[in-house]
Records
---
Amino acid sequence: MSVLVIEPTFEVAEYGRWAVMRVTGEIDMATAPRLRQHVQTVTARKPAGLVLDLDRVGFIDSTGLGVMVGAAKRMRMIDGGFRIVCSQNHLIHLFEITRLNEVFDLYESLEEALTSVEGVTVDGAGNPDGVAT
Amino acid sequence: MSENFDIEIPPAFEHLAMVRSVLSTALEAESVLKEERLQDLRLALSEATTNAIEAHNRSDTEANVRIRITVANTKVTVRVTDQGDGFDPSKLKKHPPVTDPERLEFERGLGVTLMRRLTDSCTITQTKKGTTVTLVVQR
């Protein structure tokens, strides 16, 4: 039986002392453990903050939301910031009906999420300068 | 008049994406639901199927999880049937308010809430043979 799996990808970059993880694909019970593993690897470095960029994520279920709750908790434990970039209506709807929009700081763009972050500059096209890790 | 689409999957999470894909394909063909409602039902179906697979894993059964999508004139009904050990949704631990820092201690337990909030009707029926979750979205 062939199985259709839209494999997620996780790309991490540093912006000043903040880490940004760009996630693509679909996050469900099959793929959430990989997101959790990447989050744990990044938070173990104790960045000043973590931004999860979900703008290219096509699907998130309750397991994926749970990983984000865990990420927020880990960042709080190290006194770090935690922000989510999300401009897709169906994902925003998901945060609203679970009221997690009141727990997470949501931003419409990476530029907006990093605006007040120390050491981050934004180029002429509105893109912050970052270093892939 | 109604049309049925039946799916059977082994109890493994890597099949979740395929189940969602079948639902989308079945409903997109004739624009059965508005995009927003289709996304809602995709997520509710995925949550119900996840719970069914978990029930089979807990019961150590290799039987397939069965899913039936019924498209009728006025509504779409999805039934997810497992042969697992069942669960009592009334015994789910309630999450603290979102303003409570303790909320971050709860990484699981949103699935049933989502199924209920994203559909017009969500019914969980248990028998000695397993559990059937019935999700209904009006057209």
Note: DSSP finds three helices and five strands in chain B.
---
Amino acid sequence: MLYVSQMQNRQVWDAWGNSVGRCADVLIGAVDRNFPPVKALLLRGDARDNGDRFIPASCVSSLYPSITLNVPQDKCPAYSPTGDELRLLDRVLDRQIVDTEGRRVVRVNDLQLARVGDQYCLTGVDVGGRGLLRRLGLEGLGQALARLLGRSWKTGVIPWEDVAPLHQEDPLRLRVSHDRIVQLPPADLAAILNDLDHHTSAALMETLSNEMLADALEESPAEVQVAVLSHLEPERAADILEEMDPDEAADLLADLPEQTSEQLLSLMEDDEAAEVRSLLAYPEDSAGGIMTTEFAHAPIGLRAGELLDYLRRSEDARDDEAMYYIYLVDEYHHLRGVISLRDLVMATPDADLTPWIDLDPVTVDPYTPQEEVAYTVAKYDLLAVPVIDPETNALLGIVTVDDAVDTVLPTAWKKRLPRFF
Amino acid sequence: MKTLMKRFLKAPAWLQRILFYLSILGPGLITASADNDAPGIATYSMAGSTYGYRFLWLVVVITVGEIVIQEMAARMGAVTGKGTADLIRERFGVRVTAFAMLCLLLANVGTTIAQFAGVAAGTELLGVSRYITVPVAALLVGFLVLRGSYDNVEKVLLVLCLAALSYVVTAIMVRPPWGEVLRQAVTPSFSREPNYIFAVLATIGTTITPWGIVYMQASVADKGVELERYRFTRLDVMFGAAWGNVVSAFIVISTAATLFIYGINVETAEQAAMALEPLAGAGARYLFTTGLLGASLLAASVLPLSTAYAICEAFGWERGLDHRSREAPLFYGLYVGIIVLSVIVVLIPGIPLFPIMWLSQAVNAILLPVLLVLVLKLVNSRRVMGDWVNRRWQNILAWALTGLIALVTVVLLTSPLG
């Protein structure tokens, strides 16, 4: 295998065996392909004929074990860069890239080239320990050690098609990366945005849609949310908060300094902001703090078909992300009963639903501690539990099972980590 | 966090103001407080008690040096949004990075050892064995950082660090000859005596540290300071550096005024605590231990973490506390390894605590030029910094400091007893 680190600063010879200079960089084209071809080499002249010049790949006869040209030096045309090449040594080697298969940010220890047909192509990125040792000149030692331990030594090379190089100075290149990065699950996307340095992460976020960022943030621990949001302009941050579930948005805002959260709330649309504000009034670790106000509800007394029709027209039902249950309320918005979506769907359209309605559902009040909510949900095998205002008896929202068990899971302590790390 | 803030809001107005100030002060204050961590207090006490006011000029020089260098680190963080290790790797490749990270690791392990030595010295002064307190402190630090609400703890520790202010009060109480103090502060004095040179190195090394640079850059980069607002960060950084050194100077003055004049050269915590007796009388040792513990625990919680982070950043290994230990084995391995190694060293029976602290700081100083040279190259690169490269005067000062450290190191290593 040929590695770019082996070409770095290597002497280049022409067809007559004269030294032409040293290899200072390798340019590849068609970066979005799986095997981008080598387009040119950048040669740095020896001291006497100073100056850098580009040699087109068509003049190169071999890259390894030594770099040789297939023409005499003076017959070699100059290559003029077209601007869409990627300079491997300058822009990729030692930089951070996103491994879209492993879904993490890694550093490029080396780059692997291979001869495909009549041209050299970039095939993979070495992000493993072997690449590091090679750069330190210790690859042989590592290999000997591995043999001594009787283990095969993995190379840690990722195919080029599975990586996304990142350059905030280079919008064109970011486009390619963007196409690969948007396919990541939202939680991984947020983690990657958090792992990247500030400028790159901000540049990447420019290319992502508000919905995508909102999804990513909802899936992230609080520290990541705060960090990612702080990279954004306040107007954009407010737009993204509107896209998020109100309970998630409220949680996030609660983690921000009061001044910042006030500013963001004032930039949000009035009704969205009002909803979030009402949630913010409750302690973060209570039912009120984790409930969502977007859930399917309907007036009590409808028949199955009517109820389904009602739900299809209801905006609240449309915003309900899970809709395990339909909450049936009277004109004062008091909870009168709960029916599971399953039972509703199975009933014939003109059936009276009363036998399937749970008329005395388990509820919690907004100040119930989160742990108790989790306990309730587990004890009664619920997928969501309604939250009732103890004074007015009005139905305020619901806590879904995933939000309820958040504290019990080990991820929860992450919310209290130092900001820096 | 919220409940703590509520408690703060009930506090009297003056206290509220102080706490508010603490809450907005950033990395500047933390690094400044870390100037007066356990090895810091040990080194300044040693210097002041052994050489009197003669050391003050060095504190002045170091103050200027620290301000210039910390500002450079903060500026690199603000402009690039990247950590020091990240920039070194991208610019200088694997070999240089490996060498720089090795130096950083050595320096930081030494300093972490010194922090736990501080915990040992402070608590043994109160009669509690180090075999109890050091492991407890290590567990506490590990637990707080990995599991706890670090933000609150940091504030508590910063408040404990205020105990170092007692040196300022003491120095004023004992009425030192201020004319003489000022004269010495502006008159350089040299000596080729190895002990003196060693003390110079330790004093430099405890104030301007490799980890201070790395930590400063990382925290500014992490906060994502807008360049238009960078001047506020610069103010925080410069104020923090200056403030830390004012306290250092007062440690030198008070130990000079209370111990040097009686010919007591500090070699143990007991002697060092005596410097606070004019202020606190019999309570001096409690005051001394409070300051020592606050600063040591603060530094011990930041140091191993920022070291592990920088090294993993340089080599592209998974890092950060939002990864689980299975995902980031090297990060957590380094973190735990540094703490465990430090604890073991401090618990070696009969190991002298104060000399370890000085030695670690001298090693810091000797390793510092490696990082300084790389940082200076980076901060002068237009490709990295754009228009934010160093001004000429900044370069002159920074190179002069680097040269000074290198020169002192050479003198020490070639001196007969070195």
Note: The longest helix of chain B spans residues 84-125.
